[in-house]
């Protein structure tokens, strides 16, 4: 399978693709549409946002088509690429575990490698619920997020209200990292100095509990707070 994100130069290539609905309620053409929507989401995430050429896409169409089932896409040998930047994933699954009234998705990826981002984990799993698909704005609940990077693990929960920009969006999240010192040491030789510095400062701002460092991170009115401390950064 090959897909591109219009107007961005970003491409997605996938080796074997397996599509199924354990309930047997979603026909093959609708499974293919579900797979195409998952590809669109992967391309947009790799870009870091929606392409202007794709604004106004109606996700409710896909949800209506699958609301009787729990479709799953299984991808192998995945490559996301743009000039100077490549991410590969050995295996990924995207499963719509609930489709009515809200869309709940479980996503898993293993064997992840990124040529440019040293903080990208080698394995990632996420359990997300998207509310208000038919409205002007959507809220995403992070039921669970778990990532592995060397001897460190990252876990997160929270809610994100998506606005027209970061400044009009809101977020209330909790993030924890185990063995953060090992993570800093791991990226010290490969990450830009500003990334190492930011992670070191974050460690100092975190709450310590044994080998776990945690933060409450919020976004409100264009202001980011960490453990209720406003950060002096501009949110676009």
From TrEMBL:
Superkingdom per UniProt: Bacteria
Pfam families, per database record: DUF2125
InterPro entries: DUF2125
Protein name: DUF2125 domain-containing protein
Taxonomic path: Bacteria, Pseudomonadati, Pseudomonadota, Alphaproteobacteria, Acetobacterales
